[in-house]
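Researcher: Last one for today. Full complex below.
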Amino acid sequence: MFVHLQGPWNPVWGRLSLQAIPYQNPILVGTFLFAMIAALAIVGAVFYFRAGPYLWREWFTTVDHKKIGVMYCLLGLVMLFRGFIDALMIRSQQAMAVGPHSPGYLGALHGYLTPFHIGQVYTAHGLIMVVFAATPLLVGIMNIVVPLQIGARDMAYPYLNALGFWLTAAAAALVMLSLFVGNFAHGGWYGFLPYFELPYSPGVGVDYWMWAFQLSAIGTTMGSINLIATIVKMRAPGMTWMRMPIFTWASLSTNLIALTSFPVLMVSLALLGLDRYFGTHFYTAGQGGNLMLYNDLFWVWGHPEVYFLILPAFGMMSEIIPTFSEKTLFGYATMVVASFAIGGVSWGVWLHHFFTMAAEPSVNSFYSVTTMLVGIPTGVKVFNWIFTMYRGRVRFELPMLWALLALFLLLVGGMTGMMNAFAASDYMWHNGVFVVAHFHMMVLLIASSIFGAVEYWFPKVFGFKLEQRWGKWFFWFMVLGTAWVFVPMFILGFAGMTRRLDYVPVTQWAPYLRVMLVGMAFYVVALGFFVAHLYVSLRDRMKNRVGADPWGTTRNLEWMTHSPVPAYNFAFIPRVHARDEWAWRKEHGMANLGNESFEDIHMPRNTGVPVLLGALSFALCFALVWRIWWLAAACLGLVVLVIILRSFARKTDEVIPATTVAGVERAAQDALASPARG
Amino acid sequence: MSASTNTRMQPGSTVLWEKGDAAGHDALGTRTFGFWLYMLTDAMVYAALFAAFGVLAHNAGLTSKSMLASVFDAQAAYRDTIVLFASVLAYGYAMVALKKGSRTGVAIGIIVATILGVIFLNMVTGDLEHLFSQGVVPQLNGFLSIVFTLVIYHALHIVVGVLWMLVMLMQMGRDGFTSNVVYRLINLRIFWHFQAVIWVFLFVFVYLQGKVI
Amino acid sequence: MSKRGIKGALKALCAPLLLMLSGCSKSGLFLLEPKGLISQVTYHYFNLDVGIMLLIIIPTALLAIWAMWRYRKGGGGDYRPEWSHSYLIEAIVWGIPLITVGVLSYLSIKAIYQVNPYNPGAISSKGTAAGKPLDVDVIATDWRWLFIYPKQKIASVDRLVIPAGVPVRFRLTSTSVVNDFIIPQLVGMIDVMPGMRTKQALVADKTGQYVGYSADYSGAGLSWMNFETKAVTKAQFAAWVKKTQAAPQTMTYADFNRFAKPYLAVHHHRMVFGRVQSGLLDYVVREVMSGKVWRTPMAMTENMVRYMKKQQANVKAGEY
Ligand code: HEM
Ligand SMILES: [Cu+2]
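Model: Here's the assembly. Have a good evening.
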């Protein structure tokens, strides 16, 4: 229907048939078994402990920003694992398939992955890491921390918050499903035109990619609306703009980027969809289409997107470094200006992602210069962090270690970014592994900040600290892995090696590729330490319980309530008197948590509608991927109906009575006083 | 010099915690603010589409204008414009009635706006059907692809608006002017006006451009 | 683990350091061994760019390490928790990046004009002394390179032969998707796009063999879509042209339509064509613009070994 398709189609099943299931591929069958065993174990455990109702009541239907944040983080971690497995496959394939005499297995001429498979692995790795690992982790942490930092009881739109999460989760599920039903896109995470048009990508892979991407874009846009409105409208009394914690500033700037750029991504993908489903000619090479239009639209989103990812990471560093330097952040105002400068400039640089498309030299010059301009505020941030440590008392606890690693990665990533911005040099390695190494420095910086932030805020959310011994092993092996993978990758960049190769024709590159595999082994060990870190922490959770301020030198509002944070965040909304309010109160001997004559608190009520909408969107996208029109129409109709019906709901709020509040507050205080504290 | 040192206060006299339900922020304002943010994303979508229009028109070169001239009937579009603007005006009257708290006033305004919206949709789909039947379809070339996409995307907004107005009629009938109903009516006004603004752009770039050479 | 295994593992462990320090084996590090005018100019600016940045980055890194260490808790550095602002320092931290970026921008713009693919300053500044340029038309198919010498009316597949010391001007297009044309030791990337024509120019300094390939992802055959560049003396080039003109195979527009079908160039089939119908590149651009496509089959390389067998059978049957 609509367009000419290769392969069969029928009205009931669309393009779906038994052939769509890759039961002949041992790797995928193995993965499937692993996934099934894991799923069975989880489902079994849920039934065994009768946790179903609890999970549904307390988690799936929750509108509590902290719980949604935790679920975002869990989703991010799971996808991080999946993306890591993809990375292992890429590295091992390239280490094996060098030179014409390297052996081949499983239908591959060299190595064990054919172009058909490694193409999917590349695409999935990139998309997952950017959209389904980094983004949910960052959004999750913003979700948890921002309302606490501004002294709010919840987000501006708790229901929208849950919806954004469930759409993201549905999108992630769609990517995972493509492993076992059909296949994924075969190009690269950002899409290639006209390669992604039907004649050159006739399968369902691109459709999976497109719909998963689209769904997550909608989810993230909703999240950004929510965070911006929360920051603008929900700050505690007394919190003027210039008293806002720096992480909140970072969240504001980053979400402004998301709000304005994600719609452009949606358009770029939607037009591709029209081409693929209706046979229009937006991006075709012929008939008045324009394939560069896609590149422009995509990167108009794509470049701001990378700053969408890094600004919260900068914000996290700016929280962690002062705490563990026992000192105020140096140059607060500058930091704010720098964040917005980065956000602003990031809109005017997108063309640097295709310097090689033969634009006029004047055009390339313009974008080369604007790109370099980004380096200025970024450099300023580095200096400010250094001067925060200067005249401080630096404690090398785990969060600080991660933040410092991030700082050094930023030096490398920033410098190589500036090298990319030098267009004449970029001609030599655009589409090469040098660029890959550049952005991995940046993305690992983000990952480091995230790990640091998790270590840092974990006690706030769960009420106990993570242990430090295994965590340090994990840290150091991550450092080792990073060195062993990316030093050779930079060298290969100078060798002129290009990206997305299934087979490496230049035999001189073999040693570097093997060394990278050693780096991957370090990463695998690091993963083991991470698991140990989590396990030991969970085991010793009673021993490691903490009070409101586990690090002793924290500065902001989020540390002015109990750990774990009660459902209503603050029994009383704090009044803010200074930047770094908590530090100010400690300094002035006012560090009590106000605990008499509690009052009723209004909170939004849990609802299952977001889960339902997530599930329906998942089914809708699945139907569209396989072109099962009746199912798509039914799902779309249901989505509209559910939204309308929900708008008729009357009771969306509930009250937590003062007595309950008093009970919770007392219990939190007693828990601390009890001798169980190690 | 940090912010923490320049504000010296007496511990005893400082209010540290807000009593009373301080969570009662400006609820209506928060709702509308969020809707403005949403409108901004929709504006970005249109901006991207119009950018694509510019690029693809450039591709088609001079033929783009003659294509538009031969395809679209500016007079019919003028008629569409009148109807859509009348609908927005009617909605405006509904909002005036809202200020006065008159339920019938609001209802009449919205009903008129809805009917006019449906008429608009009817005319646009009629035009499109006519074109399609003559073989002028989006699949012909890149330029027509974007032209039809713009027109249809706008029409979809009108569909949403009409549905929303029907829902509001029902909710108003059931609940009266509760805060939920009021903020939705205000947001719907933003939405509906925005569609008229977009239509102006469409009218100028798509329907009129062919005529002015 | 065997002794050799352990040794190998040790080697692999220490390798990043060795690789960094020794600098012994430069082979394979193409960008650091430029062999053409354009690539040398690029390399020159690259060195300047990196040098200037290291001037900033290295002291910054040292400053960070110093601050961390000097002001560690219990380390005895003075502790001033309220110190958080200094106009002097702020001026310096904005000033240094600003000045650096200014200098780098100037260099970048200069470099862009020097290696502008359409009219590289590095070549045009030499005027006629550069010699009379050779024209080559490049058509990228899925997944082969066809080099057409329009004046000589010959063509060559996956092998580019050029005279050293003479400017070569390329016009490039693609039949299906976007590729990127690069010969790392001679010239950087230029997009090769369907329905459009781009340009590139280079001069090879010395005779020799250089690898060229496609850099942009173009589908299953990308990894094998490389070509050999042979820079030869002028005399050798003339001889090669003569020999090629005598080759029996010819390429008309109709032949090209068959040639352009998807083909995995695993076993490079380096053909030459003794006569080529003139205007082939423009013909391809026109055809693609009006909607011609060469489709890729579904799930083509799901099993590549099997597909290669099929392809070889097709070649035998004269399908290409
Ligand atoms: C000083 C700041 C930065 C500069 C000057 C810079 C510059 C560049 C340039 C010019 C490119 C294009 C290279 C090419 O494709 O040939 C690029 C690619 C990229 N950069 Fe950066 N960048 C900076 C910071 C960042 C940050 C903060 C991130 C991420 C969080 C990032 C992530 C990326 C990614 C993901 C790509 C490649 C996308 C792809 O091709 O898959 N960069 N960068
Ligand atoms: Cu960028």
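Residues 130-316 of chain C form a domain with the Immunoglobulin-like fold (CATH 2.60.40.420). Residues A 303, 306, 349, 352-353 surround copper (II) ion (ligand 2) (CB under 6 Å).
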